[in-house]
Amino acid sequence: MPYSSSLSDREWDMIEPLLPQKKKTRPPKWTKRQILDGVLYQLKNGCNWEDLPKDLPPYSTVFWHYKQWRAEGVIEQLRDVLHGRVRQQIKKKPNGQP
Question: What's the pTM value of the predicted model, to 2 decimals?
Answer without folding.
Answer: 0.83
